[in-house]
Design goal:
The chain is an alpha+beta fold. The chain has eleven helices and nine strands.
Length: 374
């Protein structure tokens, strides 16, 4: 029996070029400073930045085959984009529209115009979509909520990421998966105040809303499950980028901040803390890259790779953000410094698409590892 070759987790030249382009764009637009200013506007996202990223650079269609109007890339390239978005905590709907919504549509019958039309619009960035499930819904969870089909869709979904500012909602209901225009009668999207101001949440209320059927119940469940698995796997890359920025910024600050005539970063206790964090981030990079590669290649171990990545990366990102805030001292506690944006994004990501504990339970089941007994 031939042993399969191990995955190549190094970044390809194409991925490095994509990273450079995305980082250049985000740097030109102000990076974390711009994200902080955008958080104060009350807008769901920065439309100019999204237009440049999604349409100008074509990143919105990375997961969409060329024959359907996309770039024909893979989850590895999308992961690189999310790493850079994590580094800048940019307020753009990439995860919710270009990943979750797109993957949901790809799980439907793309030969149907009702599916192909919205998919092409999301791929070229002219429209923004959102999968109408609560943000904490984990792969394998029950996302349908209380939405009922019939003459029109009726029900309510809470904590929907990306719904505010979206043009089309993909709504799982008891009778299948539907596309709903957010401007249609009977559709109310009510923003709620989130912990993470750079990833807004909303409550979606449907009252006899007109909707287009995209998939019957069985296929709808499969499409949503695949989208949640893809989203969870690629969220690990966003968490990785966030953690890397926090470590780099903390090293930079402690290297320039002096006490007792020497940089505080030279104190042994702080060096040990930062070295331990670096080791955690190296491990997070390996697990996030493995998840992205598994999604890109359709590996039979994809579910395991995603569970490992989410079980580890969520906690590493929170720890990195906490260290960043604490080791910046007083300035790290202020609104003017962007460190709090990273901590809030890290805490929000930690429960998005399943908590680390939920993913550990999934991993134990997948590898037949008995859990603790009472």
């Amino acid at each position: 029996m031939t042993t399969p070759a191990p995955p190549d987790l190094l970044y390809s030249e194409t991925e490095d070029d994509l990273r450079a382009a995305v980082r250049s764009l985000l740097t030109d637009r102000g990076g974390p400073t711009a994200a902080l200013a955008e958080a104060e506007t009350g807008r769901p996202y920065d439309p100019d930045l999204w237009r440049s990223l999604a349409t100008g650079m074509g990143t919105a269609g990375l997961l969409v085959p060329e024959r359907l109007g996309g770039q024909g890339a893979t989850a590895r390239e999308a992961a690189v984009v999310l790493e850079e978005l994590g580094r800048s905590v940019a307020a753009v709907p990439y995860l919710t529209s270009a990943v979750l919504a797109v993957r949901t549509l790809l799980g439907c019958d793309t030969a149907r115009p009702e599916v192909a039309g919205p998919l092409a619009a999301l791929a070229d960035g002219t429209r923004v979509g959102a999968l109408a499930v609560p943000l904490p819904t984990a792969p394998g969870g029950a996302p349908h909520g209380t939405v009922r089909g019939g003459a029109g869709l009726s029900g309510e979904i809470t904590s929907v990421a990306g719904a505010a500012g979206a043009d089309v909602l993909l709504v799982p209901a008891d009778t299948g998966l539907y596309a709903v225009d957010t401007t249609a009668p009977g559709v109310t999207v009510t923003p709620v105040i989130p912990l993470d101001l750079t990833r807004p949440l909303a409550r979606v209320t449907l009252t006899g809303a007109t909707a287009t059927l995209l998939a019957e119940p069985a296929r709808a469940r499969t499409a949503v499950a695949d989208a949640l698995l893809t989203g969870a796997g690629l969220l690990a890359s966003e968490q990785l980028g966030l953690a890397e920025w926090c470590l780099a910024e903390t090293v930079r600050y402690t290297g320039g901040r002096h006490q007792f005539g020497r940089p505080v970063g030279s104190f042994q206790a702080l060096k040990h803390r930062l070295a331990a964090l670096w080791l955690d981030i190296v491990s997070a990079r390996a697990t996030a890259r493995n998840a992205a590669d598994a999604l890109a290649t359709g590996s039979p171990d994809t579910a395991v790779a995603v569970a490992v990545a989410q079980a580890h990366c969520g906690e590493v990102a929170v720890r990195a953000a906490q260290e960043c805030v604490q080791l910046h001292g007083g300035i790290g506690m202020t609104w003017e410094h962007p460190a709090h944006l990273y901590l809030k994004r890290a805490k929000s990501d930690q429960i998005a698409l399943g908590t680390p504990g939920r993913h550990r339970e999934t991993l134990a089941r997948l590898v037949d590892l008995p859990g603790p007994t009472g």
